[in-house]
Amino acid sequence: MSQHLFLPLVMLAMCPTPGAFPDSGKVTELREDCGRPEPSARILGGSDAQPRSWPWQVSLHQGGGHVCGGSLIAPSWVLSAAHCFVTNGTLEPAAEWSVLLGMHSQDGPSDSAHLRAVAAILVPENYSSVELGADLALLRLASPARLGPAVRPVCLPRATHRFAPGTACWATGWGDVQEADPLPPPWVLQEVELRLLGEATCQCLYSRPGPFNLTFQLLPGMLCAGYPEGRRDTCQGDSGGPLVCEEGGRWFQAGITSFGFGCGRRNRPGVFTAVAPYETWIRDRVMGSEPGPAFPNQTQEPQLGPREPREENCTIALPECGKALQPGAWPWAVQVTVPGFRPCHGSLVSESWLLAPASCFLHSGTSDSGPSDLDAWRVLLPSQPHAERVARLVLHENASRDDAADLALLRLRAPVNLSAALRPVCLAHPEHYFLPGSRCRLARWGRAETAPGPSTQLEAELLSSWWCHCLYGRQGAPVPLAGDPPLVLCPAYREEEEAGRCWNNSGWTLVCREKGTWFLAGIRGFSGSCLRPRVFAPLQTHGPWISHVTRGAYLEDQLAWDWGPEGEITEPQTCPPHTEHGACGLRPEAAPTGVLWPWLAEIHVAGDRVCTGILVAPGWILAATHCILRPGSATVPYIEVYLGRAGASSVPQGHQVSRLVISIRLPRHLGLRPPLALLELSFRVEPSPSALPICLHPGGIPPGASCWVLGWKDPQDRVPVAAPVSILTPRLCHCLYQGILPPGTLCVLYAEGQDDRCEVTSAPPLLCQTEGGSWVLMGLAVRGSQELFAAISPEETWISQTVGEAHFLPPSGLPYWFPESGDLCPPDLAGASGFPGAAALFLLLLTPLIQGW
Ligand code: ARG
Fold this sequence. Notes:
Elements: H1 2-14, H2 25-33, E1 47-48, E2 57-62, E3 65-74, E4 77-80, E5 86-87, E6 90-91, E7 97-101, E8 114-122, E9 137-141, E10 168-173, E11 190-197, H3 199-207, E12 222-225, E13 242-247, E14 250-259, E15 270-274, H4 279-286, E16 333-337, E17 344-348, E18 353-356, E19 366-367, E20 370-371, E21 378-380, E22 390-395, E23 408-412, E24 427-428, E25 439-444, E26 459-462, H5 465-471, E27 478-479, E28 491-493, E29 508-514, E30 517-523, E31 537-538, H6 543-550, E32 555-556, E33 573-574, E34 600-605, E35 609-617, E36 620-624, H7 625-628, E37 639-643, E38 657-665, E39 676-681, E40 695-696, E41 706-712, E42 720-727, H8 730-736, E43 745-750, E44 765-769, E45 775-781, E46 788-791, H9 796-803, H10 837-846
Parallel strand pairs: 24-32, 40-45
Antiparallel strand pairs: 1-11, 2-3, 2-7, 3-4, 4-9, 5-6, 7-8, 8-9, 10-11, 10-13, 11-12, 12-15, 13-14, 14-15, 16-17, 16-21, 17-18, 18-23, 19-20, 22-23, 25-26, 25-29, 26-28, 27-33, 29-30, 30-31, 34-35, 34-37, 35-36, 36-39, 37-38, 38-39, 41-42, 41-44, 42-43, 43-46, 44-45, 45-46
Bound molecules: arginine (ARG).
Signal peptide: 1-20
Region (Disordered): 287-311
Keywords: Disulfide bond, Extracellular matrix, Glycoprotein, Hydrolase, Protease, Repeat, Secreted, Serine protease, Signal, Zymogen
């Protein structure tokens, strides 16, 4: 489509005017004139240019504002980038554009500044998108520029011209000074020194996966300039502008700013359109204009730098931030002391800036107009003997209102020299996604009330954000997909166990490691509840603010990309329902079977027997009476309960909790010993991904549920197995086991071919997962049986009265225990108790199972 539009223009310009090119005296004159700014008179990491130092730099305006740069190559011709003028394959009309010449700042008119309309825009026929090259354009001005000290053309290289790798050249423009951070007023032209990179070096850098795990293939006609370590680069808005190199007192344009991956990122130098290969294309288009552009001969041999390294063994830049010799000995850990207050812990984020919670400074002599006594503040840096002084305090605009924005930046009076013992922590770009399973640490942050106890484990492992999202009561809320920026960071870590006390200490920040590099990933939780783990607010949303203020904080790309089972989830998930007491029965879809059954408890009875128990409330376990109490014995044994053991691999080691049982409660039953027992724990177990109560369901079986018997295959190693089962209708159950069933017994049928059965002496539970995603406890195995379970729901009243916080879901579906007449059993089933095999097959064929009622 684009070809249609610009082909006629290209063709027009291609018609040569015989004899008009180029060796007339006039042209020679201009040649001498090109590429020479007045004697003596940024971009990313650049600085303000001196007026008139880059007199060929033009600003291309569309709709009243600066869009791209360009360079004056002849009085009526400007060189720029094709992508500035092509939108969705269509070349924009020349009439929409104007060229501003002789500009220094975009702030206001100056003597030399003048504007020209654009008569024609010419783009190579084979241009389609920046990554495919040929990103250049010629603009013919409606009338020639007014040449003078501030307006002069640049020299163009001939096709044979060689710019040696390593040459220091300069790029100029009014583009962004950081990613998504526009040049601030008064919009003074920026300049930055960039080194030309050889093709092999550049390709080598781009062959290493960078942002978004992407690599890139350089094409002929492209040129790279910049540094492997990044930090100096062109950026959005610089496109079309020149990259110029000085040779023999003249400036030649080696490149046209074209594109990059982000701006100033490590191993991602800027990509320019090489100008020399387009000599003929340019000459052909401008043919006939007088005076034309100048292509002076290359006067000096290109100085060949050190031999170009081969692709395989080039030196890629490693992160300069986030390196610690030893976890915990953080070279970025700083302390700010405000007179009269305890020190406030923060982090070094660049040579000159610290990040700390704003709450440390909000009440310490800080007024709206800023703190009065910065002079008296002192900063203690790691490995530095003397305290540093603070020059400036910048509070986040939402600092006082929003916990997740409780941030302040402090500028040191003098930048520090970085070393192995003193270096900034890495910060994340907004699109950074810390993978579940990442190894993290909690680090001191702010002015916490209580010091961490000696046994506090500061190690943490990131869980899928599903956990915290759903645990913290966003029921029914859509869970961010893997790869979408999470709303919370959810680390599993060991908290101090304090009997009956709910911690409330927010003096932590979360640092996470990717490929050996530490990132400041999140700040203090939104506390106020006892839920575990405490969630952290992702810090990457503040990356743009931090880099805007500091202009040099170390924002690093995501370094690890192994998504694990998380990445397979592409369907949006929603959080299962909660009860009035909070979340229950949560289990992530992505959890591999056998892992993470947070309500599954090991009950060690008198040291020799192990029973299965189910956490039904923070201080209560439900278990089978026959497993807990010896027949006939009336004494209460010594019982220990362990949670967080099931699924050893998914929750970091050491996340188990143990409790003593202080009482055993049995419902009042006449005659037989009741099948279910409630065990009261010595103190609460705060809900967390390794210890979370299951949901209970009054009445029948939740409609559409899928059900499982959960237990251990072997009571020795106690690796959980879940065997899929169907629950039979009461009538079938009754018929199969006629006469021997106590009331309130559920019977199940194992899925065909299922031989992963649970061991029965530990009394495994029967669970169902509802359509809404909640896991519900239905029953506990009857002594010695794999198929019969003592149902929970007949004991609803007893459970709610004893426990108080049991998670009964709202009733749904039909009641299970409806009255039935007993004489409807098919004749061959009656009495087939104890061996339901053949009969069950028959049932499967003839009779609807309980599911789908
Ligand atoms: N395409 C950008 C523009 O339109 C120029 C980007 C240059 N980026 C870089 N990292 N060198 O202004």
